[in-house]
Amino acid sequence: MSHNLFRILFVCLGNICRSPTAEGVFRDTAARIAPRLQLEIDSAGTADYHIGSAPDPRSQRAALERGIDISGLRARQVGAEDFLRFDLMLAMDRSNLRTLQAMSPPNARAELHLFLSYAPQLRRLEVPDPYDGDAADFAEVLDLTAAASLALIESLQQRAQ
Question: What is the pLDDT of residue 103?
């Protein structure tokens, strides 16, 4: 991984709930606490269900309640080029991690991990999909991604030294 620029891709299934939330939370947190950290941040889904769609309105609303605007993001599907472009591809759950591992070409440069693996204090490894849930489920996604974002930023700052 380059010490000058860190390229990070957050990945869930459809790229309308968890991964755009993670992208928005991480982007906001990094801007506030590590503005000198050079980052390229994006999100994508392993499935093609919602390509071109904005994040789920409930995700947008929950993020906006915390001052984070993710309305401009648009869903896209993970492509082969992502494994060559990004340093880290962070899956929201084991199923999407397995999909990424299966898709990964032999010459991939991206490290594949579960996003919550950066925050072991949470004592969980998966960000639950809030799609069939209520406002509390979307708030939980924000809480989990905020904790993991802080830990990931700390890890990147250590790597940059």
Answer: 97
Number of domains in the chain: 1
In a domain, 1, yes or no: no
93 is catalytic: no
- Using a cut of 0.90, tell me whether the model's pTM lies above it: yes
Decide if 17 is catalytic: no
Read off φ and ψ for residue 58, nearest 5 degrees.
Answer: -70, -35
Among the listed residues 81, 82, 84, 69, the one whose alpha carbon sits nearest the alpha carbon of residue 10? 82
Q: How far is CA 105 from CA 1, 25, 80, 95, 133, in A?
A: 17, 29, 7, 18, 35
Q: How far is it, in rounded angstroms, from Cα 53 to Cα 50? A: 5
Question: Measured between alpha carbons, how far is 21 from 103 in angstroms, rounded to an integer?
Answer: 23
9-68 tens-digit pLDDT: 999 999 999 999 999 999 999 999 999 999 999 999 999 999 999 999 999 999 999 999
What domain range includes position 116? 6-160
The reply to whether 12 belongs to the active site is yes
Q: Which of 12, 27, 28, 93 is catalytic?
A: 12
Q: Which of 18, 82, 87, 93 is catalytic?
A: 18
For 14-105, where are the E strands, in sequence order? Answer: 39-45, 88-91
